[in-house]
Write the structure tokens for this entry.
Amino acid sequence: MNQKKLGIYIHIPFCVRKCNYCDFNSFASDDETKVNYINALCNEIRGYGPKFKDYSVDTVFIGGGTPSILPAGLTRQFMDCLYSNFAIDSDAEISMEANPGTLDIEKIKAYKELGINRISLGLQSTVSQELKILGRIHDYETFLDSFMMLREEGFRNINVDLMNGIPNQTYDSFMNGLKIIKELNPEHISIYSLIVEEGTPFYERELNLPDEDEERKMVHSIPSILGKEFHQYEISNYSKRGFECKHNIKYWRREEYLGMGLSAASLVNEIRFKNTENLKDYLLIFKEREKIYDNNIRFSEFEHLSDEDKMSEYMFLGLRMNVGINISDFEKTFGISLYEKYGKKIQLHVEEGLLEVKEDRLFLTKKGRDLANYVWSDFVGD
């Protein structure tokens, strides 16, 4: 029986068009490129399979881009390849990102047949004008059609992505949208603050963004709308009990995961590595299976983590979650007391009201979540 557990991330970089705020490795493409990409992805999957025969896979996350842009046949091709080369647990959480406007009944039925049991729908806003500003291809009605199709076909684990801090967004428009989504009764809601990244169309524009106080007011009011039915388990994620995203929790707990596809990142045996971000290189590397491990350009990053790196990651990733850091577990894992390593920093943030210690846990306060980047940065590169 397999003892070691592995998460798998599959990157599908294609989308209808790139959104104005997006800095992910994604782009529009033709049908031939999509076919070539899935063939290369399957070669990568086949190449890795024998190296992970001692693992069983308990989470799979298919992200992008827009994975649901693929025709059902291409999705079936790489999923069948995954099942053939890895030991996927019968109760594995298998998530896929999907965008409204790219789903249809044929695709949804195929997802069910392939064991995909969790769908993350990228809505971002219920307001048509805000969606246009973001560069999304859908309106709210298209999202609603997609959501209802998923329900009708038996999906009982749906996440809805929302965004706050959108240009021209008001407190009232955000809160009204959140109420609308709660009434649909999804199992999970992710709410991300817009970050204007360099290299995106938004970065080059003058934007009428909500001010810091307005945006903070939005975030602070989320629990009053979602109520006790949803609990915040991570700084941007809310779910019904038992519907937390198991795959993402792997990231925050530093558990092992393997990324496959263009620019996909991995953490295995305390080594972080990331595939090339160049599509031409990726297709060349994985064109023939036997050449996969002979090509030294397959990785854009490859790093053996030091003890300092591991402790730093343990802190800033663990503090993303509302349960925070297990103080005893830190010492068991690293052989040094948490306070011996980070005592001065912890004390400073406790005095500032940003961190709190309760029983055997260290976690962000409500004020600390507002200033999370400041707190996390204090544990990076110690």
